[in-house]
Amino acid sequence: MKTLAAAAMLALAPLPAMAQDHQHMDHGAMPPADPHAGHEAAGEDHSTHQQHDAAATPAPDPHAAHARPMPGAAIPQGTAPPPPADHAADAFYDPAAMARARDLMRRENGGMTFSRWMLDRLEYRTVRGADGYHWEGEGWIGGDINRLAVKTEGEGDLGGPLESAEIQALFSRAIGPWFNLEAGVRHDIRPRPQRSYAVIGIDGLAPYFFEVSAQAFLSDMGDAHLRLEGSYDQRITQRLILQPAAEANIAAQDVPELGIGSGLSDIELGLRLRYELAREFAPYVGVNWERKLGGTARLARAAGEDASVTSFVAGLRFWF
């Protein structure tokens, strides 16, 4: 037994040395053996190792062929094919009737007549000393390009005379996807003496969804005015909307009989919060501030009026 144990110890003793020698050979000057040689000899599939080797090298740029035309590649020439003449609706409806419908859709005004009438503000105003009312609205009828429009606005004191009221009749034509060019007439019922004006203006939707309007007026007495308006609907929810609005009026000359001085005559700022019970019907509350400036303020003070008025408002906005 002792002899067998000694023989076993002598047989196992060289193994660590042999392992160390094998490690030194890997880091030495001699090139390592091909790790796949054994697989080839055994006839094994080593496609996985080929993929690993390929991944170690950078892949060609997949867009390299798009950088410039391939040699000998010709750019197609000639006319584009005609648009398809068949329509799916013709299989179910009279083709002649569908052709007439498509012709209407291609017409300049869209082939259909629409209309909309909106009273944007119908409100009660609480003012120190006297409460009042105010309205502002418009309506139009026509197509996508050409329309006839009517605008009106005015205000007065409850239980008192009508202070101001005007109505405009305009021809409106779209000059782009967002803006309309307007031209027509305006007549002021109040204040007196009454005036009639020629009107030209532009209104529409500016970037970031600001509704803007600019109108120039020339009266039958030769006085000229400019009105600038803007508003924005800030949706708090799908039904609750906060609307800031601003208006400024500019006069080219003094019109003392109407209480208007030259230059920037007045500005108006408002903030209204409305709740749409339906898209067509929305009550609102808010605050409105008006300020007469320059010669207009001096004429107002001479007539015993305040140059600046702040009022709380409550009203309705509806359309159909």
From TrEMBL:
One of its GO terms (cellular component) is cell outer membrane. Coiled coil: none annotated. GO terms for molecular function: copper ion binding. One of its GO terms (biological process) is intracellular copper ion homeostasis. Residues 36-52 have a biased composition (Basic and acidic residues). Residues 1-19 form the signal peptide. Keywords: Signal. Residues 23-90 are annotated as: Disordered. This is Copper resistance protein CopB.
